[in-house]
Sequence to fold (412 residues):
Amino acid sequence: MSTSALNPKRVLAELRELAALTSDANGAQRVAWTPTWARARDWYRGKLAELPVAVEQDEAGNLWATLPGASPRALIIGSHLDSVPNGGWLDGCLGVLAGLEVLRRIAGRSTPPVTVRLVDWADEEGARFGRSLFGSSAVAGRLNLEWVSRLADADGVRLPDAVRAFGVDIATAEQAHRQIANAGAYLEMHIEQGPVLESLGLPLGAVIGCYGIERHQLVFSGVAAHAGGFPMHLRHDAFLVAARFALEVREIAKRYGGVGTNGRVRNTPGVPTAVAGECAITLDMRHIDTARLQAMVDEARAASTRIADEEGVAVTWRTIYQSPPQRFHPRLVDLCDEAIREVAGASHRMPSGPGHDAIEMAWAGVPTVMLFVQSLRGLSHNKDEDTRDDHLELAVRAFDRLADKVVAWLAT
Fold:
């Protein structure tokens, strides 16, 4: 049975227990809508069974544990158990198990003044079907049912068929919105997945919001030609245009204090002895400020046109994904910063470059904040992902203190 004493070391032990159950030599394998993910959830349900909570799976596959309080107004704590293929031992599951420890501590005392709920979001990663934040988007009413109904995995299995095996009907998934009817605040803890805190020598940070994302595919169309027969000054090499463009993207991102990435490049005809007649390249730009993000994209678009004209090729753009920047609740950011300083002595306010379920809760109008813990070498989505044990314990203590502060805020 649980006691009222917070035990951060138990969180580390349970993280390692889960890793042993659902990982192999290549890392974590808890891809959503797979047997390994189901095994992780069964294990997690066993932990919840030790607590005086009601457990239910909603219409989108999210798993909720509810500790009733004196008021139905709810503090929601959340994260995700699913992982990318060959992922790390902390990404996502740290937030669920830290939340579980906070729930244990609260449940071991008298009835809380507000209801406390812990959610394991379904398919945050989008690793199998390419739709990240599946469960939280459904709760926020932003799932886009028509689009997700057409998605299929690499083996041709359709998303609606895969989720049906887990009790989810795409047609009714957004009925899960009912889960946030009484939501007063949402908290999430996560590894940073970047090198900022480590570079500052700090273990913890208060997250002010999530970057906006602009993701596009550009196609540069030149002239395919023989690699030996065509002089350099007469070529219309689509790849060279894309390469020049990628260097411009780096400089644009640096000027505006954002990030820009060209993560995928595909040449046609794609053989060693041919000049690229066509080059498709992705562009991912992110910033916490809406105006700066738009300026970055505008400059990238102008650069692509200018370079294409100089090289005698054409360029077209296709939008893949757009998500505006989302700021978190100012009062909750203050409370998170306070909790970190009380536990760790120093804090750093920072935006999140990666997306998280927290952004969907913020879009749904729920006051939201995240707490970050340092990632060693900034690694994530990688079997070598790691964080110091003492930093993880500090994070659990700070997160618990944040939960208490938010409960008191909601109760006033």
